[in-house]
Amino acid sequence: MPDGPGLELLRGEIDADAPGAVLATSYEKERAALIVDPDRIVEVLTWLRDTPGQGYRFLSSLHVADYLPAEPRFGVHYELLNRERVERLRVKAMLPAEGPEIDSVTDLFPTANFQEREAFDFFGVVFHGHPELTRILLPEDYVGWPQRRDFPVGGEPVTFTYSEERYG
Amino acid sequence: MADLTADLVADRTTEMMTVNIGPHHPATHGVLRLVVDLEGEVVRDLKPVIGYVHTGIEKSCEDKSYWKVIPFVERMDYVSYFFQMEAYCGAVERLIGLEIPPRAKYLRTIFLELNRIHSHLVWLGTTALDLGAISMLWYCFRERDRILDLFEMATGQRMHTRYFQVGGVIEDIPVGFEEKCRSFVHDMPIRVGQYEALLDRNEVFLQRTKGVGIVSHERLLDLGVTGPLLRAAGDPWDLRKAFDYLAYPEMDFKIPVGTVGDNYDRYRVRVAEMVESTKIIGQALEALPGGPFIAEDRKYVLPPRSELSTSMESLIHHFKLVTEGFRVDPGEIYYAIEGPRGELGCFVLADGSSKPARVHFRDPSFVNLQSFADMAKDSYVADMICSLGMLDPILGGVDR
Question: Which CATH architecture has domain A4-167?
Fold first, then answer.
């Protein structure tokens, strides 16, 4: 993991090549994170992957978290891994509550295919340029985005109605 | 073997046909549906359709206090439950900055490696069964039963043991466990030798696996494939060596790798991993330190039962932990370990309450499944079944 100063150096280097793309940095629990302008996510990830000396070529995980009371509300997390230096780096793009959308990174990292579909399935985050953005785990005709924090647990009607009808 | 990349349509005896397989059959590694484009008997394209056993575990976790989440996550990948527990508990421990005692680290390492052997045995038995080697299933499940006996002895449960806790393990191993475990560690490499004797010179097995299902190393990395599948392609990437967690830095073990990355290499890598795992268990048993098996921090860890009748403070802690659970300051963490199928990551988001705001698992089966189309393309339907077995997806983990 880049340490605190290393993260600031990294930010400086990105700023030199792509001014304004990195909005903030965070370093906590020994984990480094870059908070990136969602419109420029592909630019930053390409830079991190292809710039000599960086080489964050492996996308470990792509997932979304819902920070409900906060605005922007959704955070798309890209867990990058540099296998040569054994360093992890989290890139985070924050999206608004209304119509969260971001560019797909499937061209850069084909592994993001299923994971972006999963994020779409559960949070309704739209990934532009994804080859096949459909629901992946839920049924195709499902309505709603169940992993959002304001979606109630137990919001599904129970299909076993025998006891209900019999005992009220 | 015939070159299957050539176009067969030209001879006008075959035509393209889309066939739906499943949800269930592909030798029933789980409820997986495949939509396959066939040209005669040759697979030209395929699409896995998943979600048939989706149970919303990640959502359910948001409604449970931190310590009650553990049994939920165990039920995702139901063959490697100790790994799920470690990924989750390790993530929460790092979030609250709780150091676990050395004995707990060693005990966890022992159980993780036992679980790895158990998982590989299930894989070997079922995959060999796919290829027609029925007797392998019984031999593998015989050894698997010994591991389950060990789990039962230490934890009271054969599967879904809920043994790991935030801060350590729930209780110490019982008297006689070490001896029984040592005898298993002694026997297991001999058993693996017997499996190899059954399969390695079996002409049917060799013809069915050698040169089948090759995906280039570059493509595997692009698809995010990790674990034995990546190592079979000659890449010695193993999180147990790369990152420092549990007792692995003190262990002496090798990372088996393959050469070409065909199904035979995948089989060889996993079988060799079983032997390496027994080495780790043996070393961990030898060096098992004394001392507490769970952290002493009463804010997060239940006090011992004996203290409850004498100490008011312990009673309060016990009451608070059992009713509300502990609170975790806002923060987020991604913690990944080497599961039997590759990188098993757990993302936990804490919002300051006693329940996690988000628990997400980066399940290796889910990510690895994306490489299946590449593995099965331009091969026979029968080889597709073999490749699926060698991919070793656990659909409970894929669908969560």
Answer: 2-Layer Sandwich (3.30)
